[in-house]
Amino acid sequence: MSTPAAPRRALSARSLLDAALSAYLPLLLAVLVVAFPLVWMALTSIKPLPEIITRTPTLLPLDPTWENYATAAERLPFGRVFANSVLVTAVGSVIKVALAVCTAYGLVFVRFPGRNLIFAGLLVTLMVPPQVALLPNYTLITSLGGADTYWGIVLPGLGTAFGTFLLRQHFRTIPPSLVEAAELDGAGHWRRLTRVVLPVSAPTVATVGLITIVSEWNDYLWPLVIISRPEMMTLPVGLTLLSNVDNRAAAYGQLMAGSVAVIVPVLIVFIALQRHVIAGLTQGAVKD
Q1: How confident is the model at residue 1 (pLDDT cuts 50, 70, 90)?
Q2: Which of 50, 64, 106, 233 would bridge with 46, disulfide CB 3.0–4.6 Å?
Q3: Average pLDDT, the chain
Q4: Tell me: the pLDDT tens digits for 61-101?
Q5: Which CATH superfamily is domain 78-283 in?
């Protein structure tokens, strides 16, 4: 009886090893593909120029220095540009999430003719590339005097069809009895939204907020088109200005330093909200 037991144990160990390799090896490879360029960028930002322009590059800096960050701050009004990005991202994200929440609530809990048609229109906008609206938005904003202004950067992107779609799908999973009970207690739409719907939708709202923050912070094309004054530029556009000041290979270190400054705030926000992301993306996947 003891002889057949050993092959079964060996087979079980081999199965576990195969399962671990099949499950974790592709994940590890994907993480390496995504993380390695970021690690290389961060390490390059603290390398002196001779270690960047060399035929024998090394991953770790041999003589680390913060000179690239200091040079980038001298050539670019970094404090003002960083403040511009924070202001545009904060204001734009708050308004976009608020509009998405209110729109999704109206599409689910307010009965009015044509709401399904409106939702279909939102889905259609997801299929249209944002570059299509670039010229009409530029014509409209400049005619209103919005060039080189904060509201000119924020206004065209206030609608978020994806955020509205995600919130609507989640709101449809909320038991109607919760909202009906609040209605019987005399609560209006605003109170139902803030006291009943939002508390049970925090993960989804956090997910929409994270996606919106990343999108606003990394937006490059529209600020590049509507802004021409350096003191009004956001960080992604400021990097272009930095490369234009010195477009030689000597600017690689400063560009890497500026790129790190762009990515780090987004990583901090993601780390703060990551525990809500998976729950928020899956809450609206199935309707009971």
Answers
A1: very low
A2: 64
A3: 83
A4: 888 888 888 888 888 888 889 999 999 999 999 999 999 99
A5: MetI-like (1.10.3720.10)
What is the DSSP code string of the chain? -HHHHHHHHHHHHHHHHHHHHHHHHHHHHHHHHHHHHHHHHHHHTTS-HHHHS-SS--SS-SS--SHHHHHHHHHTTHHHHHHHHHHHHHHHHHHHHHHHHHHHHHHHHS--TTHHHHHHHHHHHHTS-GGGGHHHHHHHHHHTT-TTSHHHHHGGG---HHHHHHHHHHHTTS-HHHHHHHHHTT--HHHHIIIIITGGGHHHHHHHHHHHHHHHHH--HHHHHH--SGGG--HHHHHHHHHHH--SGGGHHHHHHHHHHHHHHHHHHHHHHHHHHHHHHHHTSS--
**Full-model pTM:** 0.81
Question: Look-up: residue for tokens 């994907």?
Answer: 30
